[in-house]
Amino acid sequence: MKKLLLAFLIAATTSFGALAQTATTSPVPSPKGEADKNAPLPGANSFTEGQAKSRLEANGYSQVGPLTKDANGVWKGSATHGGAKVNVTVDYRGNITRQ
């Protein structure tokens, strides 16, 4: 019985360590976080157009026009910010830049 309990404890201890190392998603900036200084970053973008638009609106942009995804996976379009119409991008990490 002691051997079975010892084997169980060893198996349980080693499996918990593996669970802590399984993060597979890239870090996403906070909704109003600063954009990466190299943004827009090319990459496989999993945002839908609606999610990219919502991200822009959460960061103070309004009148967001249609967005198109370019060959680098970056959403591009126009919006209004601070009363001025600007061209915007949203990359795969959620970084927003004005062009």
Your description of this structure?
The structure is a single chain. By secondary structure, the chain is an alpha+beta fold. It has a domain at 44-99. Helices cover 28% and strands 19% of the residues. The chain has helices spanning 2-19, 49-58; strands at 68-69, 75-81, 84-90, 96-98. A four-stranded antiparallel sheet has the order 1-2-3-4, covered by helices on one side. Strand 2 (75-81) and strand 3 form a beta hairpin. The radius of gyration is 21 Å and the shape is elongated.
Major sheet description: 4 strands, antiparallel
Instruction: Identify the strand order in the major beta sheet.
Output: 1-2-3-4
Shape: elongated
Oligomer: single chain
In angstroms, what separates the terminal alpha carbons?
69 Å
Q: What is the C-alpha radius of gyration, as a whole number of Å?
A: 21 Å
Compute the average pLDDT: 77
Query: What portion of the residues fall into strands of 2 or more residues?
Result: 15-25%
Helix amount: 25-40%
Q: What's the count of strands?
A: 4
Weakly predicted, low-confidence segments: 22-30
Q: Notable features of this structure?
A:
single chain; alpha+beta; 2 helices; about 100 residues; four-stranded antiparallel β-sheet; elongated; about 20% strand
